Inverse folding.
């Protein structure tokens, strides 16, 4: 939650382009490093980078993949990667939050929540958010954020896949 003694921050969500590839690649390294705590099979490559092989697909499949940069007070604060279709459901048109990252200095200040709300208002659709069950802080964030956004109108179910158990949130967004 945001510290009430701090002035409110201005959050924006900007669609990324191929020109933002290097920036997103750098941010993905920070994100994957954070995620390696809950995904122990994630390993550094011989070049000292984790890498994200799907990033070029966001430029070659513009009808299926969408990349966004989160800014707070004009400064880079994170990113959101979205794909059409989800491994959690059979609907090819559902939108799936594939990756979501907020830099640590902007966490627990409402930045992520506001960026998620902006995303769902910008792209009205049926949505899926998948969260690794053992990622307790992310699970709490998404459950609260989705419940607030949908006023409690969402479905939550467990999905077991080898080697991970997931929580899958399903809901509809509509334009504001």
């Amino acid at each position: 939650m945001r510290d009430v003694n701090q002035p409110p921050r201005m959050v924006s969500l900007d669609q990324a382009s191929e020109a933002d590839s290097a920036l997103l690649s750098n941010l993905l390294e920070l994100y994957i490093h954070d995620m390696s705590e809950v995904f122990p099979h994630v390993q550094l490559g011989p070049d000292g980078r984790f890498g994200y092989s799907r990033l070029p697909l966001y430029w070659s499949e513009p009808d299926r993949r969408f990349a966004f940069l989160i800014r707070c007070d004009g400064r880079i604060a994170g990113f959101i990667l979205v794909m059409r279709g989800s491994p959690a459901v059979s609907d090819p048109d559902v939108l799936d939050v594939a990756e979501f990252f907020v830099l640590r200095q902007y966490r627990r200040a409402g930045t992520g929540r506001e960026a998620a709300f902006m995303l769902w208002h910008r792209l009205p659709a049926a949505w899926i958010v998948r969260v690794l069950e053992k990622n307790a802080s992310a699970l709490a964030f998404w459950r609260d954020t989705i419940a607030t956004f949908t006023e409690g109108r969402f479905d939550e179910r467990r999905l077991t896949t080898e080697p991970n158990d997931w929580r899958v949130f399903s809901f509809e967004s509509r334009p504001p």
Summary: The mean pLDDT is 91. The two ends are 23 Å apart (CA to CA).
